[in-house]
Write a structure and sequence with these properties.
This protein has 343 residues and is an alpha+beta fold. It has eleven helices and nine strands. The strands form two sheets. The protein has a seven-stranded mixed sheet, sandwiched between helices. The protein has a two-stranded antiparallel sheet with strand order 2-3. The protein binds 3,4-dihydroxyphenylalanine (DAH).
Length: 343
């Protein structure tokens, strides 16, 4: 009995002096003290050899020892797992960081930036204007006085509180605002969102985007307009692209034209995009009407200029092979994330 108690005392000292050091040593400790053939178990089998009057005292000592051995195991174990990689309660600073998902640019922004970049290389700068506009800047100054039949070309959203206010139907309002500033020569491209009261379908929407161009200086000619636009489409679609100008009508330009390019989808063979004509209209243009110049305080005897306006949605549909304009404004992340952040 005395010998057994001394043995327990030695084991107790041994356990207390152990410094926990890793999972392997922990397992060895468990097997040695707590395993099925371990020290605690074997000490319990000694009970039968202890004299009956000492059994109680021995039992108490042995139980205490067993608790000590188990407590040591538990604290060692929790220490081992806390600092280990599997611990969910603390961040594991050794793991590599999550990659932050990169956003992507909207296809309309990509197309707009492409167009702007081309004109910037020709010396155009970017100007913007308000989407809520007054009648003067959206219509009247552009040679569309009240009751002018051409106002019906664009179904306008008016603002209830003030009949003079509307959602701009085109980016041509920016031309007026820039010309009114009176700083010449003027060479600008004006991107922006525009609104028209149209039925929403795969082909048209009640809002969309345009880019307007304007160049005012002395001696600006229709030849300058053609060359500028030819440069633009060559940069955009490649040097093989063909253009044609058709006479057209806009109240704010005289003469006016619409410009087509040969169909980039079927290359002239005929398809639904070009409605089997081989040509796709991409913009309207013309020489700025003298009345528009004088409306903005510019002398039409001294200055001339050209202007053009184009939608952004259609070239984006063509470029990215999208068949429904509504996708642009639905914010479906599965659609949006297909466009890489190019510019
Ligand atoms: N504002 C016209 C539209 O929305 C587009 C346009 C045509 C703009 C000819 C122009 C232009 O500056 O010269 O349909």
């Amino acid at each position: 009995m005395e010998q057994l108690l001394r043995q327990i005392e030695n084991y107790r000292n041994e356990i207390e002096s152990i410094v926990p050091n890793g999972a392997e040593a922990l397992e060895a400790y468990r097997i040695k003290f707590l395993g099925t053939k371990g020290i605690v178990k074997s000490l319990f089998t000694e009970i039968k050899n202890v004299p009956a009057d000492k059994k109680k005292e021995f039992g108490l000592v042995l139980n205490e020892f067993k608790q000590l051995a188990e407590a040591k195991y538990e604290s060692w174990k929790s220490q081992a797992t806390e600092s280990g990689p599997g611990d969910k309660s603390k961040p594991d600073l050794t793991l590599p960081a999550d990659t932050a998902p990169l956003g992507s640019r909207h296809p309309i922004s990509l197309m707009r930036n492409n167009i702007i970049a081309i004109f910037q290389r020709l010396g155009f700068s970017v100007a913007e204007g308000p989407e809520i506009e007054d009648d003067w800047h959206n219509f009247t100054a552009l040679n569309l006085p009240e009751h002018h039949p051409a106002r019906d070309m664009q179904d306008t959203f008016y603002i209830h509180q003030n009949p003079d206010w509307l959602l701009r139907t085109h980016t041509s309002n920016i031309q007026i605002r820039e010309m009114e500033k009176g700083v010449l020569p003027l060479r600008i491209v004006c991107p922006g969102r525009v609104y028209r009261n149209e039925t929403i379908s795969a082909r048209s929407h009640c809002f969309f985007h345009q880019i307007e161009g304007l160049y005012i200086d002395e001696n600006v000619s229709f030849a300058d307009l053609k060359q500028t636009l030819y440069y633009f489409v060559q940069e955009m679609y490649g040097t093989d692209v063909k253009i044609r100008f058709r006479p057209s009508y806009f109240p704010f330009t005289e003469p006016s034209a619409e410009m087509d390019i040969n169909c980039q989808i079927c290359n002239g063979a005929g398809c639904t995009v070009c409605k089997h004509t081989g040509w796709v209209e991409i913009l309207g243009c013309g020489m700025v009407h003298p009345k528009v110049l004088s409306n903005c305080g510019i002398d039409p005897e001294k200055y001339t200029g050209f202007a053009f306006g184009m939608g952004i949605e259609r070239p984006a549909l063509l470029k990215y092979g999208i068949n429904d304009i509504r996708l642009f404004s639905e914010n479906d992340i599965r659609f949006l994330k297909q466009f890489t952040p190019a510019i």
